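Progress against Task 2.4 (sequence-to-structure conversion) is shown through the following example record, which the project officer requested during the mid-term review.
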Amino acid sequence: MGFNPETMLFVLFSLASVVSALGVVVIRDPIKGAMSLIACFFSVAVLFLLQAAEMIAILEVLVYAGAIMVLFVFVIMLVENKEAAIVRNTVAQRVALPVKLIGVALIAYSFTDFIRRTPFPRPDTAARELPAGFGSVAAIGHEFFDNFVFHFEMTSLLLLVGIVGAVILSKKRGKAS
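Structure tokens generated for the chain above:
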């Protein structure tokens, strides 16, 4: 029994997402950690694509890998202090590692115990059929602009006020200097 290409891609990008997520935690350089987080976001987006969730994959790349990570990298580069040690090697740090590992092990045990005790539906019960086009970009767009256009306009107005406020505040700080 061989793997089909979709399964191989799923395994490959699942491993890539786990490895890049570990890189976020393990890498000490904040910029390299942020780049590892971007790789994790792209891997997760591909996993969404493989599950036929195109809209979520697009939003993952646009919102998280695009906008949020640009903000993270900007803030990291703005406030980074090269002289300060990232982690000091103290007795408290050495004692904290086993405590953290025990905490992670307890949480993992709690999750596995919860999953083991949760009654899952039997395989013979049929799932409800979703309507054609459910979750597609067109269906989400129609729902969004037919039923939530007021909310969309208020959000854009709020963002515009925030941008104008940020520009005004930055102009006032520039004159005071």
